[in-house]
Amino acid sequence: MAMENNRFIGVGIDVGGTYTKLAAISDAGIVFAQSTVETLPGLGPMKFLDRLEAAVRLLKDSISRPVRAMGMGLAGDVDSRKGMLRCSPNMEPFTGFPFKRRLESRFQVPVSIENDATLAAWGGYVAELKRRPRNVVCLTLGTGIGGGVVVEGALYRGSTGTAGEIGHTIVEPDGEECSCGARGCLEAYAGSYGIVRTAKKFLAHREGLAAGSGRRRVVGSRNIVWRLCPDLSRLDARVLALAAQRGDWAARKTWGVAGYYLGIGIANAVMLFNPDVVLLTGGVSRAGRWFMGPLLRVVRTRPMGIPARHVRVRIAKTPNLGSLGAAAWALEERKIS
Amino acid sequence: MAMENNRFIGVGIDVGGTYTKLAAISDAGIVFAQSTVETLPGLGPMKFLDRLEAAVRLLKDSISRPVRAMGMGLAGDVDSRKGMLRCSPNMEPFTGFPFKRRLESRFQVPVSIENDATLAAWGGYVAELKRRPRNVVCLTLGTGIGGGVVVEGALYRGSTGTAGEIGHTIVEPDGEECSCGARGCLEAYAGSYGIVRTAKKFLAHREGLAAGSGRRRVVGSRNIVWRLCPDLSRLDARVLALAAQRGDWAARKTWGVAGYYLGIGIANAVMLFNPDVVLLTGGVSRAGRWFMGPLLRVVRTRPMGIPARHVRVRIAKTPNLGSLGAAAWALEERKIS
After folding, report:
1. Does some domain include residue B150?
2. B48-104 pLDDT, tens per residue?
3. B chain contacts of residue A90, beta-carbon cutoff 8 Å
4. Which residues in B lie closer than 8 A to residue A149 (C-beta atoms)?
5. B127 and B193 part of one domain
6. Model-level pTM?
7. Taking a contact as any Cβ pair under 8 Å apart, which residues of chain A between 209 and 248 contact chain B?
């Protein structure tokens, strides 16, 4: 463990549905290089490996230090012993593919494969929080909601590698439909598709009000969402954050709902894990200004007050915690950190 | 750690609102003696310590081996460093009293103080599960619902000693009132007071139906709950289990509701901790026959299936896991086990 610093490199690969991010960091935690390639899961895992190999070679060429370990985060249920995806709603073509074995034979280094949000939690713990707190719950807020947990300074993966799946905890029994097929999961309210669904309901409601009162044009003229995004099928969390910023009523109500349910999911995780920090990362976390108020209102007003008062809920400032975490975890698992 | 077996004794004390249970176990995990005293918290902590001292002396006299450590479980939020209750709805007179310091000076052995359900979880892990699984969530089902967690074979207490508080996770936003002052906690539906409240609603509803249809006498004659417990203010979980056994409709519906919400709370804990076993203990767990069906239906039908299929939900057979766990934990903390 007491290595000379910056001698060895870990490469981290965060495989998203659209983009795959790469990072090379040293045993001292210094980021040496980062890059991005398209994932294109539809073309199959072999083509993906080819593109990945080219990207990793480019990364290695820019460093001139030996790569000693690689880590890969995959969105879905990961069997880390076999080093493959057991199941994944968003990356069906990659399920069952032996990533660990194939990567190890291509690159001749040990490869660690974990759930992407689990590795983002480790990235948050190492790169954002500098390993200072003992117990951390990390949420990755994007299309879906991933989660990971650090317990007593160690990454906790659970008995089948699935620990920290806060996105699929139930926050509203018999509530909205979730991507997983269940109802009332946190993701169904605070994953970006759930947020967009809530917004469309508020927009339709406003439309109905306007039609009913004959004031359609007046209300329409104040409709900020529709001016930002005339094609509602393209509505996303970024537009809704912008609309909230410009004072749009439906957008603000929408973020209120997302924040309320994030508050319930996080309050429950706080009761169970009693962490020092809850860290939020991922694209949707950038809209924190609009959901943090209602979120904290739920967490802070829990009567069993000590864990709720102890915990700090923070939005991560460091980008790419997924790939950084994958690289850091690969080094950690080989005891090169 | 490699001690000769059965040479040293740990004494465990599980302080409940009504009774305090004691257990003496050896470093090899053999139970040497158990006893019970009344808690009578209203008389204050000093009187309680006097009664406790007498009980411990009786226990020691029957063993003739040296007591090397004592553990105490208290219902409420425990500061284990200071060795006292920070707050407790049921044992107000004991809050702030320096149990650790007073017990150590009376008995001249090191004393470990933790939340009672946390120690019951350790008892379940050691005495019921024989330390076989790696990750365990334990629920103590009684008037309230306590919880404790074992992570990678070690008792996990969280950052303020409050981890595992599953009874105060939200299972129904804006739901029934909980003893903690919040709404919709698991305890409000599956703690015995919540179960009794649900039963009274079903009974009142039936009464209403009977009155409305003019069939009061007929329905009344089938009213098993009222025959078992003519004074409804004394209705408890034991009566409701007996009534369910005899085919009472309201009692069975009541257990169905409790099981459904236990299912939601446990499914959420399974998503977050991904444990091997969820262990149920405490008086209400004896009614498992009536709530396990609906409980497992919620857990097993979660679409994110791998953690839900992996976990076994079991009812503990060993009684007094609270005092056994307190004794075992005291030895564990001193490395005498």
Report:
1. no
2. 999 999 999 999 988 888 999 999 999 989 999 999 999 887 788 999 999 999 999
3. none
4. 272
5. no
6. 0.94
7. none
